[in-house]
Amino acid sequence: MSQEWMILPGPPADKVRKKEGIVNWKSVQDSLRCLLIMVSAWILFTGPAVSEEYHIGPGDVLEITYWQQPELNQTVPVRQDGKITLAVIGEIQASGLTTMRLEQQLVERMSRVNKNISQVVVTVAQFRSRSVFVGGEVTTPAMLYFEAIPDMWEAIKLAGGPKETADLSNVTVLRSADEGGGVIQVDLADILGSGQLDKLPTLHPGCTVTVGKLPEGLPAERFTETSERLKVFYIYGNVGSPGRHPIESDVDLVEALALAGGSGPNADMENVRIISKESTRPVVRVINLKRYGETGGPYRYVLKREDTIFVPTKRRGIFSGTWGAMRDLLALGGTVSSIILILNR
After folding, report:
1. Do domains 61-126 and 232-344 have the same CATH topology?
2. Domain boundaries of the chain, sorted by first residue
3. Is 33 or 3 the better-scoring residue by pLDDT?
4. Which of 197, 175, 170 is nearest to 186 (CA)?
5. How much is the pTM?
6. Topology adopted by domain 61-126
7. CATH of domain 232-344
8. Which of 62, 146, 206, 322 is 20 to 30 A from 158 (CA-CA)?
9. Tens digits of per-residue pLDDT, 263-298?
């Protein structure tokens, strides 16, 4: 049953009689509407911030700019003791402060020796206090620095993405000593397949992410290298050539599947998942490619840069019939043939 808005009847007339006299019903509605707007505005402007303000940490590099006297401008690193050394005023604590708070302290200190200085701008030139090391079977193992640390999959992609020998079902996260240490084992392949990225462990400064290597004898995933890292898409699961592939303009999901060698045996074409990075959080879409091949609907999905595609395998019961298996294989073969025909047109 579809839901519909239900309109409640108002008073029998546009006025409501009370013991005190006659009240204009429209005026009451207008007053309530104004009150709702005021409450919403109060919540918007006085509620908690969406994201925390950045606090300077050891290793960060700061640019100090004095508008009235640019000859005093400096670029300085924050030492491990949390302090910076500046001309004229010497050492000052920076770690743990926001840039705005440090600006206030610098103005206060500088104004004691130079009355002309009333404004200082502090900019974090390099965010080096929030770092994560990504290693193992990735294209470019490296220490990565962030203003806001992303999720594990984004960090792996920033390290160039998995290599052809990567085992995404065997990814480990080593916590830093500040976080209490410990190792977390992550089946990234399963998480990407389910689209439940909220199950990824949160990364903290000092973490080490290691992508495991496929055991000897197993077929390696084939990756198409590209000099422009951002112009790629990733595809995993039950496909012929999983890995990273270059993306051209206006490539849709069907064409991407063909570029990856088509679907494999028992691929679940009714539940193909696409994970896109939009705004500050990933968005997971489930697309029925089987229905798309039969009816052309629901729509043609055009890939965006760094989209991740996962083609799951059908879950079969113990007593599945032989005819059912043959029927599914024939259907999948027809889907792959259709894709090849599309590419050859």
Report:
1. no
2. 19-46, 61-126, 131-213, 232-344
3. 33
4. 170
5. 0.53
6. wza like fold (3.30.1950)
7. 3.10.560.10
8. 62
9. 888 888 888 888 887 655 677 888 888 887 777 666
Q: What number of CA atoms fall less than 13 Å from residue 326's CA on the CB side?
A: 3
Contact 233, 303 (CB under 8 A): yes
Two tokens at 248? 């051209």
- Considering only CA atoms, give the Rg of the chain: 29
- Alpha-carbon span 24 to 15, nearest angstrom: 5
Burial classification of residue 44, based on how many CB atoms lie within 10 Å of its CB (0-12 exposed, 13-18 middle, 19 or more buried): exposed
Protein fold of 131-213: Outer membrane lipoprotein wza fold like (3.10.560)
The residue ranking higher by pLDDT, 153 or 218, is 153
